[in-house]
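Lab meeting, item 3. Inverse folding demo.
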């Protein structure tokens, strides 16, 4: 999966300040944007990690923009209702934005009639952060390490089950890729949410869960055992768990998301929004929210974020063909 190196990302972060000075000089009047509240569509119910991070971001960005950034929750359709609104109803004036995440990038390649082009039908403003994924098993079960996991799968083909929060999610595709590399036969059991999947492991309904860190409290309580994480580096919260890279896979899986708007936004407006959201992202208050939910920084400035989306779209299209993924 495409992933910018730590050094490169640090350079991008440091370099963002150099972009700020001419931000409003290109194509917009700094005295006129914004002159009213901005709407930020979060395509999930209130209370989750993305909702919390984006609400914090909106509150902080409003201080720079001088106008409120109002979060509007539009859950449903696997988190794609915001993208649907951006591509069919929103004006490209910078006053309506939405979370851009991997399900939006992936959807055109797993449905019969693609609803949008994930690269060209949006104005991609900024890449923000991702999630810490990992694989957990029951703490008192026979699997105590990644080596045990593979050995159990090979000894019991078609019997080792793993749960995720849904079909064709980032973590589902990652597990399919790992299984193909290792030539193991493991069974996917989708749940409605990652916290439900984690509880299912403790109840013995499934043997493992591969998902974001909603399993964290159950690992800390001793009910579950974390056998690997998918971030670039080990988790400060769970330092004993090796990364996939340490286990021999050149894979970093964090499902990064960002903010995008409708196609055709003015470059100066886009720059003003980028700079306000970048300042908010680096604010200690937002850093604390990301730490609370184990959300690694995945910052991309505007041009690089569009390039990332293009690379990711190519990957998603290839995986959809390889796995013959269809949801309609």
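The presenter then showed the designed sequence:
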């Amino acid at each position: 999966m495409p992933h910018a190196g730590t050094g490169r990302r640090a350079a991008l972060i440091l370099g963002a300040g150099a972009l700020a000075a001419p931000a409003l000089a290109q194509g917009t009047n700094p005295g006129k944007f914004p002159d009213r509240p901005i709407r930020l569509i979060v395509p999930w119910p209130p209370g989750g990690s993305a909702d919390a991070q984006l609400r914090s971001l909106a509150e902080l960005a409003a201080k720079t923009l001088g106008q409120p950034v109002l979060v509007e929750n539009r859950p449903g359709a696997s988190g794609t209702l915001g993208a649907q609104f951006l591509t069919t109803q929103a004006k490209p004036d910078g006053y309506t934005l939405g979370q851009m995440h991997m399900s939006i990038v992936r959807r055109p390649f797993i449905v019969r009639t693609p609803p949008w082009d994930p690269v060209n039908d949006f104005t991609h403003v900024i890449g923000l952060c991702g999630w810490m994924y990992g694989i957990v098993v029951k703490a008192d079960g026979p699997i105590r390490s990644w080596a045990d996991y593979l050995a159990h799968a090979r000894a019991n083909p078609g019997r080792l089950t793993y749960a995720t929060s849904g079909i064709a999610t980032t973590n589902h595709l990652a597990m399919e890729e790992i299984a193909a590399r290792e030539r193991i036969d493991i069974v996917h059991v989708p749940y409605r949410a990652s916290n439900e999947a984690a509880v299912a492991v403790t109840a013995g309904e499934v043997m493992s869960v591969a998902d974001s860190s909603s399993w964290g409290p159950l690992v800390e309580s001793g009910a579950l055992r974390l056998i690997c994480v998918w971030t670039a580096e080990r988790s400060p919260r769970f330092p004993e768990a090796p990364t996939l890279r340490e286990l021999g896979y050149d894979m970093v899986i964090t499902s990064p998301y960002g903010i995008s708007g409708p196609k055709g936004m003015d470059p100066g407006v886009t720059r003003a929004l980028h700079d306000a959201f970048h300042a908010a992202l680096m604010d200690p208050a937002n850093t604390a929210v990301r730490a609370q939910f184990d959300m690694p920084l995945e910052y991309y400035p505007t041009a690089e974020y569009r390039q990332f989306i293009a690379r990711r779209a190519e990957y998603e299209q290839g995986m959809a063909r390889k796995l013959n993924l269809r949801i309609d």
